[in-house]
Write a structure and sequence with these properties.
150 residues; mainly alpha; two-stranded antiparallel sheet; 7 helices
Length: 150
C-alpha cells in the first residue's frame, strides 16, 4: 500500500536545502526521521484504538524507510491486507484459502461463512495511516519552519 503526499513548491524547497548549511540539513533529516516514526506510532495507536488487530501483524508491519538522502520518509505497512483495512473493499468473494487459518483460529470450521459475509457486505474502511499523517503534519511543518528560520 502506498499513499503519496506531494509538496507544492518542492523544487524551490530543494534549492533552498542545497544552499543551507550542513548543520541545518542534518537537523531537517532528523525531523523527517522523527516525524516518520511519529506517524508510525500514531498509525499503530489508531489500529489499537479501532481494535483492528488480531495478531498484531498489521501494526508491527508498519516500517519507516528513509529515502533521497534522508529527506523523505516512506511509511508503509508491509502486511498484504493493509489496503483492505485502510480503504475497505466493495462486496466480493475473497479466496477462502486466504481466510482459512483466521477462521479456524476464531472457532469456525471453515472460511466459507466469512467469505459469504464479505461477498454480501464488503469490508468497511478503517483508515489508520492517512489520519496518522494528518495528526502529525502540522507539528512537522512547524519544526521545519523553525529550523529554516534560524
Amino acid at each position: 500500500m502506498k499513499i503519496t503526499v506531494e509538496l507544492k513548491g518542492e523544487r524551490e524547497f530543494r534549492r533552498a536545502l542545497e544552499k543551507m548549511s550542513e548543520e541545518k540539513a542534518r537537523e531537517i533529516k532528523g525531523e523527517v526521521f522523527a516525524s516518520g516514526h511519529d506517524i508510525r506510532t500514531e498509525a499503530q495507536s489508531r489500529l489499537r484504538d479501532q481494535e483492528v488487530h488480531d495478531t498484531g501483524n498489521l501494526k508491527n508491519s508498519i516500517m519507516v524507510n528513509l529515502k533521497k538522502g534522508g529527506m523523505v520518509a516512506d511509511i508503509c505497512p508491509e502486511a498484504p491486507y493493509a489496503p483492505y483495512v485502510e480503504f475497505g473493499a466493495r462486496p466480493h468473494f475473497p479466496p477462502p484459502d486466504a481466510l482459512e487459518r483466521w477462521a479456524r483460529k476464531h472457532g469456525f470450521e471453515s472460511a466459507w461463512p466469512i467469505c459469504l459475509a464479505i461477498a454480501r457486505r464488503g469490508l468497511p474502511a478503517r483508515p489508520f495511516l492517512f489520519p496518522a499523517w494528518l495528526a502529525v503534519k502540522d507539528k512537522f511543518w512547524k519544526r521545519i519552519r523553525r529550523i529554516l528560520a534560524r
